[in-house]
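Listing S7. Sequence submitted for prediction.
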Amino acid sequence: MPKKEDYHVVPNTDRGGWDVKRENADRASAHFEKKSDAMDRGRELAKENKTELVQHGRDGRIQDSDSYGNDPSPPKDKRH
């Protein structure tokens, strides 16, 4: 079974705002002005597809990630 590709919430440098992109995709799945709206949609998509949601900052660096699939090594933190 092929690995499901994760979703990323990334800044859109061309038109501002935030994109929800599937890993290795050319186009965004969705575009939002507010990061919180992009995170909500990304969370929905990650849950539907049982993948991970990776949150990026304005600088493009990864800030956080949440797994919504069958995680073989779940985190020990109680944050989520």
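Caption to Listing S7: primary sequence and predicted structure tokens for the chain studied. The beta strands are 7-11, 18-22, 30-32, 52-56, 62-67. Residues 35-49 form the longest helix (15 residues).
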